[in-house]
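User: C-alpha cells for both sequences below?

Assistant:
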Amino acid sequence: MKPDFRRVRFSGLCAIVLGLLCFAPDARADLTLDITRANPQPMPIAIPAFQGQGGDGQVGAQVTQVVSADLERSGLFKPLDPRAFIQDPAALVPVPRFADWKLINAQALVSGQVTAQPDGHLKIDFRLWDVLAGIQLIGFSYNTTATNWREIAHIISDQIYKRITGEDGYFNTRIVYVSESGPPQRRVKRLSIMDQDGFNNKALTDGRALVLTPRFSPAPGAQEITYLSYAQGVPQVFLFNIDTRQQEVLGQFPGMTFAPRFSPDGNKVIFSLSGGANSQIYTQDLRTRKVTQITSSAAIDTGPCYSPDGTQIAFESDRGGTQQIYVMNADGSNQHRISFSSGRYATPVWSPRGDLIAFTKQEGGNFSIGVMQPDGQRERILSNGFLVEGPTWAPNGRVLMYFKQTPSDASGRGDSTRLYSIDLTGSNEREVVTPQDGSDPAWSPLLQ
C-alpha cells in the first residue's frame, strides 16, 4: 500500500501547449519583469476564477487561489482585487476584452477552465495574456487525477513566473524540515515534509528519536533525503526514501557523524566525523559504500556543501582560531579561507546557480543570514535576529528559507522557532506557516 503522503503523479497526458493567439496590431510587444534589479515593482496581474460546472467550478476557484497566493508571496506580482474586474470571467473565452482589463491597470491576465473527464480525471486549461499588447503569451492544458489539482496550480504558477521573469519558478517544490513541540527541556523533534507554501504537511518520523539537518537529494526526480538521527543513541547519518518510506543507516563509524549533504548528482553523501577533539570531512559513495577522507587537520572541519558543478566544497573550520568559511577542491586540495569580516561563520550553502554562498553569521549576541561570492567578496546580510540559522536555497537560486527563533524574556531564553523565506535582494521576508514550531528547512528540486 502506498503511503498517504505520496505525491500523485500525472496520469496519461501531462501537458499540451494551447495555440498562441495574436489579436493586437503590435504582437511584437513583450511583457517582462526585470528581477535582476533591486526591489522591482510588483506587476499587477488579474487572476479570475477558473471556470467550470458544479464541482469543477469549485476546483477552479481553488486553483485560482493557489496561483494567486504563489505569485503574491513571491513579491514580484500584485494580484488585483476580483471586485475590480469589469468583464465577467465566464466571458473570457475565446479572447478577453482587453480594454476592460486595461481600465483596472492589469498588465497580465490569467484565464482558465476545469473540466471533468469521463474517466474521472480533470482537464485544467490555462492561458496567460499580455493585456497591453492584446496577445496570448503562453497556454497549456493538463490532464491529471482529481486530487492532484494543487500540484497543477503550482505548475501553472511556475509557468507564469518563468514567462514573465525569464527564470525558472520554485512553486512546485517541497520542504523537509524539523517539526518541534514540547517544553525546552523535553523538546520533541520530528522529520516533516510539506509543499513550499506550507500545505500538505506530513510527519515522516514519530518523534521518539531526535532528528537534525535533513537535506534533499538534488538529483532530478530523486525523492530521497539524508538526515542525522540519534535513533541508536549516537548521531548517525540516515538515507530516507520519501516514496517508499524505506530508510537505512549509511554506515557504522567509530566517531559521531554530522551535517550530511548529497553531492550534486546524488551519488555521494558528504559529512563530518568527529574523532577526539576535532572532526574531519568525509564522503561516502552511495553505490559502493566506499568512504574517503577529504580533510586532515587539527581543527574542527564540518558543515561541508558541494558547489553545483561538484568541483568544489565549501565548509566551516576553526583552524584559524575562529569559526570561518573555507573552500577547497572536491579532492581536498587548495583549501583556502574566504570569510574575513568580524564574527563567526557557519553552515555555508552553495547557491544552485553557483554564484553565491549563503551562510549563518554570529557576531556579539546577534545572528544573521547572509550571502557572499565564492571568493568571499560582496558579503551582504539578508536577515538577522535573536537566533537565525539554517539557510536553504530555492531551486532557482532567487529565494532563501531559514528558521528564526524569538526570545521568550529578557534573560534571552529561546521561545518560538518559525520558518521564513526571503528574496535574494533581502526584501519580502515572510513566515512559512507550519502547524508547530519548525527549524532546519531543506528545499527540494523542482518536482518532475
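Moving on to the next sequence.
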Amino acid sequence: MMFDFLFNAFQLGEFLATGLRLSVPLVFAAIGGLICERAGVFNIALEGQLLLGAFAAALGAHLTGNAFGGLAATLFVGAASGVLLAYVSITLRVNQIVVGIAIILFSIGFTSFMSRIAFEGGGNSLMLEGFMPVAIPYLADIPVVGRVLFNQDLLFYLMLAVVVVTQVVLFRTQLGLNIRAIGENPGAADAAGVPVFTLRYLCVIAGSTICALGGAYLVLSQIFLFSDNMSAGKGFIGLAAIVLGRWNPVLALLACLLFGLLDALQLRMQFQHPEVPYQIFAALPYLIAILALVGLIGQARPPAAAGKPYDREMR
C-alpha cells in the first residue's frame, strides 16, 4: 500500500529524514527572500542565487579540497550577488522583477559555461568533500525523531539557527522594527531617522547570502557534485513558501517542510509505480504550491513597499 510506511517506525523515520533534507534548500531560499521583501525589495532572483551558491560551493571545495572552502566561496558569491541586486534595484531603481529575471538568466548561463572551464570533464564528474552528519549524543538515539532532527550536518543546524535568529531579530528587536518599517512605509521611516538605503542594502546582501547557502547545501550535503540547473525550481518554491508563510520566518519554515515532505512522497510514489510516467509525480509539489497560493488570494498581504523603489525626493 502507498502509505504503509507511516506505520513502520524505520520507514517513517527514513521518509521524514528525506523530506527534511529536501526542504533545507527551500528554507534557505525562503528566509533569504523574506528578509529582502520585509525591507521592501522583491527578490525574484532566488533561483539564480541558489545556482550561484551551488557553483561557488563546488568550485571552492574543488580548489581547496575542503567543504569549508566551498562554504566560504558560497558566502562570498552570495554576498556579491546581493550587492549587484541591491545596486541595480535600490540605487538605479530598475524594475525589481526585471532585475531578478536577468540575474536568473545570467546565473544559468554563467554557471553552465564556467563549470566546463573550471571542472575537467564538467561538474558531473566531481566527487567533492562535503559535510557529514553529526549525531548529537543521546538525542540522536530518540526513536524516529532523534534520527531525523539530531543526526544532521553543519548546514542543517545552521539553517535552524538562521530561522530562529531571523524570527527574533524581525519581531523582537529595534533593528527588526526598522526593517519592517522600511518595507511598509520607507518615507515615514526615513523621516523618523531610519537609514532606509543603508538598511535595504544590508538586508538584500544578507538575504542573498542566506539564499546562496541553499545552493551550498545541495552540493556539500546532498549530492557532492555540480550539475547544470541543479537548483531545479527550488527558488520559485521558496517564493511560494514566503507567501504561504505570510512573511513570517517560522511559518515559512513550516511551508518549506510541507513542500519537502511532498517531494519525498512523490519520490516514493515514483519508486512504487514505475509504470506511471515520473513527470506526473514530480509535478506534485508544484501543483500543491499553486493550489495553496490560489487559496491565499486576497488573504496574504505582502509588505506594502515591496517591489517599489524608494526615492527620497518623492516622499
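User: Anything stand out in the second?

Assistant: The radius of gyration is 20 Å.
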